[in-house]
Amino acid sequence: MSNNIKKVMTVAGSDSSGGAGLQADLKTFEEYGTYGLTAITSIVTMDPDHHWHHAVQPIDPELVHKQMKTILAGGALDAMKTGMLGSVEIIKLLRSIIDEHAIQNVVIDPVMVCKGEDEVVQPENGQAIRELLLEKATIVTPNLFEAGQLAGTGKITTLDQMKEAAHKIVELGAKHVVVKGGKALHGPKAIDLLYDGKEFVLYEADKMETNHNHGAGCTFAAAIAAGLAKGNTVKDAVAMAKQFTTEAIKQGFAFNQYVGPVWHGAYNKAEQRMVKP
Ligand SMILES: Nc1ncnc2c1ncn2[C@@H]1O[C@H](COP(=O)(O)OP(=O)(O)O)[C@@H](O)[C@H]1O
Ligand SMILES: Cc1ncc(COP(=O)(O)O)c(C=O)c1O
Ligand SMILES: [Mg+2]
């Protein structure tokens, strides 16, 4: 076994349905050939008797701290990624851990909404992410809604507004931001915009007419983190993550009548390893 294996930590919520959250992160880290570690911040359950309503149960910050101590007892990490963070206390704790261990290659996925849900999950967390985590971010990966919230620009519907929000988010301290146009931006392409304070780079793929994209955002951010851990530049890591996520969406499937997750094995053609009936 190679002793050069790259270690990536995710600090995220558990999505028992398997498409998003730390489940998406771990599956993606594995597909990238990296070693994933997890600190669970919250457990999300979906209610099949009430239209798949999401309920978030945050984990005690002390227990989150113990998980991180376990992870960091293995030495320096090559990258880390955050997802749903559970509470403001957990966000404060995370900031102190990033500082104390001088963690590099920090990918902040500022999860504020889940697809198919109208409510903002834990609105107070958005503010804390903005104040405490952006300045530690190698890259932050908001969708259109989250970019509008972080930048304070409100609803985003155009590429120019994506650029304006990206500019503000870099001003807030993030080294890079990739604003995900995804399905929400009007037009035939799924466009993501990367900005480093100097240059805008666009990443495009054909937009797929599908609702089977649960977990796309988590997968994209996890892929960026794994790419950075392996020593890629931010630009290359985003380009690779875009392809990885596009394939995962292409092979999304209906889990039930409410949700369709992406399939994280698609890029590496893991279906070829499936047992044939
Ligand atoms: N229908 C789609 N077709 C192609 N790419 C998509 C589609 N929906 C999302 N994407 C891409 O998937 C990635 C995750 O974006 P998005 O789904 O907007 O994030 P989130 O899950 O956080 O809302 C981005 O690269 C985005 O452009
Ligand atoms: C634990 C958790 N994290 C993150 C998300 C956001 O997922 P997405 O990748 O679709 O933005 C969800 C959505 O259900 C979730 O349950
Ligand atoms: Mg998301």
UniProtKB/TrEMBL annotation:
One of its GO terms (biological process) is thiamine biosynthetic process. Keywords: ATP-binding, Kinase, Magnesium, Metal-binding, Nucleotide-binding, Transferase. Its EC number is 2.7.1.35. Pfam families: Phos_pyr_kin. Residues 15-263 form the Pyridoxamine kinase/Phosphomethylpyrimidine kinase domain. GO terms for molecular function: ATP binding; hydroxymethylpyrimidine kinase activity; metal ion binding; phosphomethylpyrimidine kinase activity; pyridoxal kinase activity. It is an enzyme of class 2 (transferase). One of its GO terms (cellular component) is cytosol. InterPro entries: HMP/HMP-P_kinase_dom (IPR004399), PM/HMP-P_kinase-1 (IPR013749), Ribokinase-like (IPR029056). The keyword Magnesium applies. It catalyses: pyridoxal + ATP = pyridoxal 5'-phosphate + ADP + H(+). SUPFAM superfamilies: Ribokinase-like. Belongs to the ThiD family. This is pyridoxal kinase. It comes from Paenibacillus aquistagni.
